[in-house]
Amino acid sequence: MQTSTRNRLLLTRSLAAVWHPCTQMKQHEQLPLIPVARAAGCWLYDFDGRRYFDAVSSWWVNLFGHGNAHINAALRDQLDTLEHAMLAGFTHEPVVELSERLSALTGGKLGHCFYGSDGASATEIALKMSFHYWRNTGRPAKTNFVSLAGSYHGETLGALSITDVALFKDTYAPLLRASTQVQSPDWRLAEAGESPADYARRAAQALQRHLEQHHATTAALIVEPLVQGATGMAMYDAAYLREARALCDRHQVHLIADEIMTGFGRTGTFFAHEQAGIVPDFLCLSKGITGGYLPLSVVMTRDDIYQAFYDDSVTRGFLHSHSYTGNALACRAAVATLEIFEQNQILTKNRQTAAALTCAAEGIARHPRVSHFRNSGMIWAFEVDGSDASFARDFHQRALDKELLLRPIGNTVYFMPPYVINDEEIALLTARTLALIDA
Ligand SMILES: *Cc1c(COP(=O)(O)O)cnc(C)c1O
């Protein structure tokens, strides 16, 4: 198909004026940007009607498809009422309703919601809150943070300090604060004959050794519950979270659950930590929170932590703000997203969708070049063996030729589709991916 003038013009203007994220811009001399003219359901379209199946939910944010009718209607209504008002000293219906609903989803255990604008800001908020809690309660030496090997918590300086993905971190290392990474419970690291749960418990021993020595100076452990996304969809047994919860309790260290990606049903339960039967001290949410519509994040915490800030002194209060904290449009989109979960039994439906996709992907799982095929809720991942350094880029490019938006991480290919993926789309995604691996 010929590329139209409209497509070409947009690409030229974008390359001149827009500095794209996570991109070596020079590579676009060879690989064209994809113009998105519009989107509907799981599909992105360019100006010529070429289409791409959004198998990564537009960087893990979309839940119910592009142009979702329910979210659209809620936003239209909100636009005519209130688009935004500052949240310091003021409040509004969408932010209150969202906070009440989120709290209810934790059984009221995490009843206080502090808002940010993106995932990294939620990480920063949780780190600052944890530290400030210990300071307010007479433990100012607790200033350090522990994360898992291979963890990803965002790329602003504080969040990057506890992230452990070399590509994002190494260049900026001189700007970062020291933190500790402990062994990851990623089950691919288990020894032959060792179950994922056994390996998770063994990995927890490394955390135990660290906390026994350093608890007096450690504020918090931060984890991505069940799935470490950006390192390559490393999955692990819930036993690790139970061990980590017990160790954090024993050593008076906070447990921060970074569910920025795993929240909102991605791993099968509404929150991933539910599968371990634990409650974190801080819960970070973003990405799917607005159904993929608008930037919004939140950190939720317990009442006794909140109470440690409640005082006559201003500086015992939490000192943090963003201009768009609690944006009314974003909160309304989030409320609409939660309504969809409730009204359509999404978690139950997702179990059927997941079973169908896993079944359709059998040929991929059994392919001789594929290893570690794995699934958690609405996430699937596998490694393609014998691939070289340019695999991710080549695969991405060849996938686009087959109308698929896939962005492998190293030699890890993953599917993280919108929850509205239908049977036909499941067949298309799995058959075309299998053909790509064959080629
Ligand atoms: C995406 C992500 C973040 C960062 O969120 P941004 O909105 O990109 O800043 C943090 N933690 C996890 C687990 C993520 O997947």
Q: Output the number of helix runs.
A: 15
Unreliable spans are: none
Count of all domains: 2
Mean pLDDT: 97
- CATH class placement of the largest domain: Alpha Beta
CATH level 4 superfamily of the largest domain: Type I PLP-dependent aspartate aminotransferase-like (Major domain)
Spatial strand order of the main sheet? 4-12-11-10-7-5-6
User: What overall geometry do the principal axes of the alpha carbons give?
Assistant: globular
Small molecules bound:
pyridoxal-5'-phosphate
What does this structure look like?
This protein has 439 residues and is of the alpha/beta class. It folds into 2 domains: 36-67 and 345-438, Aspartate Aminotransferase, domain 1 (Alpha-Beta Complex); 71-344, Aspartate Aminotransferase, domain 2 (3-Layer(aba) Sandwich), CATH 3.40.640. Helix content is 38%, strand content 15%. The chain has 15 helices and 16 strands. The strands form 4 sheets. A 7-stranded mixed beta sheet has the order 4-12-11-10-7-5-6, sandwiched between helices. Strands 1-2-3-15 form a 4-stranded mixed beta sheet. A 3-stranded antiparallel beta sheet has the order 13-14-16, with no helix packed on it. Strand 2 and strand 3 form a beta hairpin. Helix 8 (196-214) runs parallel beside helix 9 and helix 12 (346-360) runs parallel beside helix 15 (423-438). The longest helix has 19 residues, at 196-214. The chain is globular. It starts with a helix and ends with a helix. The mean pLDDT is 97. Bound molecules: pyridoxal-5'-phosphate. Pyridoxal-5'-phosphate binds next to helix 5.
